[in-house]
Amino acid sequence: MLASIDLVYKELKDGSDELAQWVKERRQAIFHVGSSSPVVAGHIDSLYTWAQREGYKEHTIRDFMDSADPFLVGAAASRGAMVVTQETPAGLSRKKVKIPDAYDHLGVLWEHTFDMMRSLGARFT
What we know:
It is a single chain. The chain is mostly helical. Helices cover 57% and strands 5% of the residues. The protein has helices at residues 6-13, 18-25, 27-30, 38-53, 58-65, 69-79, 99-106, 113-120, and strands at residues 83-85, 110-112. Strand 1, helix 7 (99-106) and strand 2 (110-112) form a beta-alpha-beta unit. The longest helix is centred in the middle third of the chain and has 16 residues, at 38-53.
């Protein structure tokens, strides 16, 4: 099942492009996972502590924490879900908290978007 959290919907719906329209048309079908629960909040606290311990600058942590990303990671961890992303791990770079690194911290499985499409046999014409 393909699903995402309500906060991703909120981030994308206000655009004036085709993506915003696509998101609005699929609100109930895809963007139905709640991002607010005590379990998700615990995962978010863990991510904040992890980012500090990893040496990210406070403004970098704040940028991450102010987005839907930690909620997406926390919701995936709370459900045992795999996440698909275009991002790649940051490695030793500490310029931005990358969600694959956050997934790895919480033990969330993830894969790159194109790998998912290949495994599903997606074809575009």
